[in-house]
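ok, trying the design again with the full structure, not the truncated one.
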């Protein structure tokens, strides 16, 4: 690889916590030489420029003046050559810079020597080829992880917990009982469905991220938080992103095909919202409202497994709304991180619309969530524990809103990450309420069985 060396660069020697040498601009007449230690981490050594000269017996020439200097990736041991003498004597002493003891004491020693590559061409070609392949694979994996947001799994959690809530809320606990005993086959079916929900959430999230990045790539490169996204900085091509989109879209569709036609229809309907959401922020301040429907359609998809959507439209709509309100709250606070950049780019969001009133409006929406949860419990005739748990969930949401500061990007991100915990608690509320309902039914069935047995005994007597 080529590096441009320049005269009169100001560099000095500094150490990091691993004992490697790092740069810090300080003194004149020093030149930077970069090498790769055996740990594959970039390390730096700074050698006074007067020591750089041309050696005929070396594979690589170090040039004193401003020119391109070829430096291959070095791994393992390297040889050091003593500073220029008349006869250019090679020193056979080897140093492994990754394991140099007393680095501070050896600094002067290192400064007195120049690098000399002492590898034959075949070994060099093999090491270069293998290192290039490794770097290519590593860079592709890193770019894919960045594109799919796998390092920020909160989006997957939010989709998954929303789907779980819909499934538990609409589940009929009578399916779990056979002759007042737990149906193991039904439990296996529930666990299989939960696994499919997770798999579907992962693929749906990745599809949504790819569509969003494809639509916003020209804006993302101008926003501080998003400028390093692969499509924005062009580390992934549009064609490759479309291939990833096709793969994950197919996997999401395959997940849907495990269920009935109603569930498949609701899932396919949700793709319209996923495809069109990124365009909304260009034309309206209420893109977060649109996103709230998009992000929680998993609730309706999983509900359709247990219920007929059209026959239960009113209770499902009411139970769907608090999830939408929660999404509006956390995504609006999240959007405050990019508010200044969005204004420059003429993009719109509720963060810009509400501005300083965001926390006040968020508390108002949280209050509305509470009575919608109560109404949901009434319409679905859920165990009273659901009301108690829902109250605590909203109080926890209030607490997190109070802890948030709109001018602090870290606190906005922290609130967004905590939102997944709130949604998990909402899903657990439905699960616990259904578990209590199951326990009570089992208990009542036992009482009825005893009464029946007593009546039979009386008849026999």
């Amino acid at each position: 690889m080529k590096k441009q060396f320049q005269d009169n660069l100001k560099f000095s020697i500094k150490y990091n916590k691993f004992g490697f040498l790092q740069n810090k601009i300080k003194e004149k007449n020093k030149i930077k030489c970069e090498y790769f230690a055996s740990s594959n981490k970039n390390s730096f050594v700074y050698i006074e420029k007067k020591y750089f000269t041309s050696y005929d017996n070396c594979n690589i020439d170090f040039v004193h003046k401003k020119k391109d200097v070829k430096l291959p990736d070095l791994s393992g041991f390297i040889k050091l050559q003593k500073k220029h003498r008349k006869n250019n004597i090679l020193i056979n002493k080897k140093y492994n810079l990754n394991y140099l003891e007393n680095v501070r004491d050896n600094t002067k020693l290192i400064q007195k020597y120049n690098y000399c590559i002492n590898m034959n061409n075949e070994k060099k070609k093999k090491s270069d080829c293998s290192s290039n392949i490794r770097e290519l694979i590593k860079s592709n994996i890193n770019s894919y992880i960045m594109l799919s947001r796998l390092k920020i799994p909160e989006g997957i959690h939010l989709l998954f917990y929303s789907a779980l809530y819909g499934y538990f809320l609409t589940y009929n606990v009578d399916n779990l009982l056979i002759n007042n005993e737990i149906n193991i086959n039904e439990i296996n079916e529930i666990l299989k469905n939960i696994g499919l929900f997770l798999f579907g959430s992962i693929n749906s999230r990745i599809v949504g991220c790819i569509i969003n990045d494809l639509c916003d790539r020209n804006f993302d490169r101008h926003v501080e938080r998003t400028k390093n996204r692969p499509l924005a900085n062009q580390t992934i091509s549009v064609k490759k992103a479309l291939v990833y989109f096709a793969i994950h879209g197919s996997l999401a569709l395959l997940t849907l095909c495990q269920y009935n036609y109603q569930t498949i229809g609701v899932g396919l309907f949700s793709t319209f919202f996923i495809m069109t959401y990124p365009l909304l922020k260009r034309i309206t301040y209420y893109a977060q409202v649109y996103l709230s429907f998009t992000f929680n359609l998993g609730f309706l998809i999983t509900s359709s497994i247990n219920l007929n959507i059209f026959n239960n439209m009113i209770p499902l709509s009411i139970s769907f709304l608090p999830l939408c309100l929660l999404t509006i709250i956390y995504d609006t606070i999240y959007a405050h991180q990019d508010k200044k950049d969005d204004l420059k780019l003429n993009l719109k969001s509720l963060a810009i619309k509400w501005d300083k009133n965001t926390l006040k409006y968020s508390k108002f929406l949280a209050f509305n969530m509470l009575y919608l949860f109560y109404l949901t419990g009434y319409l679905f005739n859920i165990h009273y524990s659901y009301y108690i748990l829902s109250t605590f969930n909203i109080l926890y949401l209030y607490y997190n809103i109070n802890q948030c500061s709109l001018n602090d990007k870290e606190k906005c991100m922290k609130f967004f990450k905590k939102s997944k915990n709130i949604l998990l608690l909402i899903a657990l509320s439905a699960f616990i309420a259904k578990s209590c309902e199951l326990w009570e039914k089992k208990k009542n069935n036992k009482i009825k069985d005893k009464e029946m047995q007593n009546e039979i005994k009386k008849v026999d007597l």
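Keeping the full-length input from now on. The chain is about 60% helix and 10% strand.
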